[in-house]
Design a protein that fits this description.
Order of helices and strands of chain A: HHHHHHHHHH
Number of helices of chain A: 10
Protein name (chains A, B): TetR/AcrR family transcriptional regulator
Keywords (chains A, B): DNA-binding, Transcription, Transcription regulation
CATH class of the largest domain in chain A: Mainly Alpha
Structural class of chain A: mainly alpha
CATH architecture of the largest domain in chain A: Orthogonal Bundle
Oligomer: homodimer
InterPro entries (chains A, B): Homeodomain-like_sf (IPR009057), HTH-type_TetR-like_transc_reg (IPR050109), HTH_TetR (IPR001647), MT1864/Rv1816-like_C (IPR025996), Tet_transcr_reg_TetR-rel_C_sf (IPR036271)
CATH superfamily of the largest domain in chain A: Tetracycline Repressor, domain 2
Distance between the termini of chain A: 64 Å
Shape of chain A: elongated
Organism (chains A, B): Hyphobacterium vulgare
Radius of gyration of chain A: 20 Å
Helix content of chain A: 55-70%
Largest sheet of chain A: none
Strand content of chain A: under 5%
Number of domains of chain A: 2
CATH topology of the largest domain in chain A: Tetracycline Repressor, domain 2
Chain lengths: 214, 214
Amino acid sequence: MRTDHDTLTKPQGRYHHGDLRSALLRATETLIAEHGTGAVSLREVARIAGVSHGAPAHHFGNKDGLMLAFAQDGWDRMIEAILTAVEADRPGDGPAFLVSVGKAYVRFAMANPGQFDVMFRRDLYDLRDRGYLGAGDSAWVFLEDTIQRCIDEGFAPPGAAQTFTIIAWSMVHGLAALWNSGRVRSRFEKLDPDRMNEQVNEALTTMMFPGRPA
Amino acid sequence: MRTDHDTLTKPQGRYHHGDLRSALLRATETLIAEHGTGAVSLREVARIAGVSHGAPAHHFGNKDGLMLAFAQDGWDRMIEAILTAVEADRPGDGPAFLVSVGKAYVRFAMANPGQFDVMFRRDLYDLRDRGYLGAGDSAWVFLEDTIQRCIDEGFAPPGAAQTFTIIAWSMVHGLAALWNSGRVRSRFEKLDPDRMNEQVNEALTTMMFPGRPA
DNA sequence: GCCCCATCTAGACAGTGTCTAGTTATACGA
DNA sequence: TCGTATAACTAGACACTGTCTAGATGGGGC
């Protein structure tokens, strides 16, 4: 039987791994999930993949490159998760669409705390990297369009799009970050994460878009 | 003349530093401000303070201990900054008080991005540390009380205190985190940070507390 | 004045990122 | 089919790190 772990380690006796790059990224994910972001090292990642300690540098340049690639992978996965959620929810109007997106954002962050962390870290890689900024920018445009749609549909007066966009992203991002930092969780032990996520997102959206005027 | 740097380095020829603990914390701050969180090492911090590489371990146990102490120092400073801001603003009612607090929170994070980062990191120290949790908890209670006061004053119907507290903290925290990560800033180059901070905080507060009912 | 003990030093060790020169094997053009 | 350019990977070296030890120093309380 070929387990998932087999695809991580290099086939014995072979010089070339075959798909080392993605194997190293999956090793990074495993390490972060099990022992935290601080446990990631090029050498340990190489060890898991069964290659020499210098091999990762060839694919990512240096450790910053590995973390940046992991962050970009996170953006890809998050965008995919959001699109999947929206497809499943089939929201009827703009505000419902926004709730669906917001919930999916927070849910992804809760389910992948390590990777979400890395996606927004200031010190692990060059923040000016074009691909990295591009991933975040397209997410921003997506959110801005969603909110503009709510306004166009008459759920709120025009002119507030920029402020609402900042508020909406800030709220879901802050909720995710605070939850993962253990602050919200420690104060509301009895709170069901999914219910809280839904409740908060619906409350904010209702406040921003109280309803189509007569 | 006695510059600030003099108080960092140990007086020559003396064995005991005198106030090594706080000198090490200030060295940490300097390092983070100038070269990022990743640049902090016990040895470099010791070098700046002019002591041997093993000295910091005696005060903080290990590197986690240093970062935890730095995080706690951040909480102290942030709470102080918020109280000072509220005193200066002299807000007339609950919502105005909340705006004052929110603005001060974001302003502190913008002015101290490195320390703010460390305050909420999941991987630099033991999150279950009692002092660390205590600092955050008292901030939470403070915010919850503020929002309860808005409700008591009739600015919103009762029952929403918990949800509003989560929304309010999430929003300011997310705004601070996104701004520091370079995302908001990169999209709104022309935006004045202070004006944006004020605008967003006032918009959210107005949405939550539209006004005292007749 | 004396002694306890907090403070600090200095060396050792394993682990790390990165650099370099060299080895292997794959893809591709003739 | 063969050669070769080149991508993929190895292995050793180096400076640096956190942490552990044994020991040196000197300030404060009795």
